């Protein structure tokens, strides 16, 4: 009985260099494996549910660990469990001997479980917007771009799991070599939207958009520290998650800032822009840095800060930032809102959830697990989450955050999507 159950599933034995199976000359499956007991499993920050199984794949136990940050452990097996999907057996650490579900928060890094289609097979794309990728050998996104179609068929010569998620490789034409998320039966579209903000000139502060049920906006300020910025942007692209980015003009012209602006320019299907002023001065009270007035700035100064930043960002992205702006430090009042509205930015975007991700861990800043749990627990209809492209735990918080929101029935998207 035990052998029959085990032969009914695929187990990635780590000592196998490759496994090739031919089915009627159509499919060749090649699964490169690491040394026995030595392949890596990345466990993302946040809750990590795990199961134990009998030899017949009946669940015999369960437990959940919460990791403050991501962890890399060793694994010994990868198996398709009947009725449950793919699981990885952990061989080291506190979860040794337990199985974790392969997916966004627990996976073998890189491109694995490669199935080669010979001859190539067709995948039907329904009308919609898709995101396609190029990966390096480690599974990191090196390029991403949108694919819009009214309905088409693509030829694919390979399927694989990339960092826990299934993808298909395009076999021919101008897209040859690019990877499409999903399976032959279910290619995955972009389900969020960005751009086309609301019209109007009346100034107001916005902390949420309650009419947007089951949607929550992810917003990222961009100024000062930018070390993880491109990693965050790449992860949002990989997950096909829409977001609103608020750069300062000064940050946009830095080396990393220019890279981020180039990605935003290339991905209007995912990213939209708001204005975070040119120099991040406190526009209500004064102060904030070099070149900032020490007392409350004049209306002319506020207008200049917004328009100069917009010109800087437009030169790099080809897109304007109106009607959204975010007051530096969250310092705002009705008079300042009115000044910004007259300058062309009527919507002062605040937030319903502040992740405080700008604070370094050494100064009591939050862990990645805390940030993810806070966003999921505080979710509300049309909520607005404040994060930073330079946030310390932000990149590592995103997998558990997005997974938790999806499980709760919420879609992460842009500000404009909430208003629609």
Produce the secondary structure layout.
Layout (H helix, E strand, L loop, with lengths): L1 H6 L14 E2 L3 E4 L8 E5 L2 E8 L5 E9 L3 E11 L3 E6 L8 E3 L4 E2 L3 E15 L2 E8 L5 E9 L2 E11 L2 E6 L8 E3 L22 E3 L8 E8 L6 H11 L3 E5 L1 H4 L2 H12 L4 E3 L25 H19 L6 E2 L8 H10 L3 E3 L3 E2 L13 H10 L5 E6 L5 H14 L3 E3 L1 H5 L1
Parallel strand pairs: 16-21, 17-18, 17-23, 17-24, 18-19, 20-21, 22-23
Antiparallel strand pairs: 1-2, 2-10, 3-6, 3-9, 4-5, 6-7, 7-8, 10-13, 11-12, 13-14, 14-15
Helix pairs in contact: 5-6, 7-8
Describe it for me?
- This protein folds into three domains: 108 residues, no CATH class; 69 residues; 216 residues, TIM Barrel (Alpha-Beta Barrel), CATH 3.20.20.
- Helices cover 22% and strands 33% of the residues.
- It is built from nine helices and 24 strands.
- Helix 5 packs across helix 6 and helix 7 runs parallel beside helix 8.
- The protein is globular, with a radius of gyration of 24 Å.
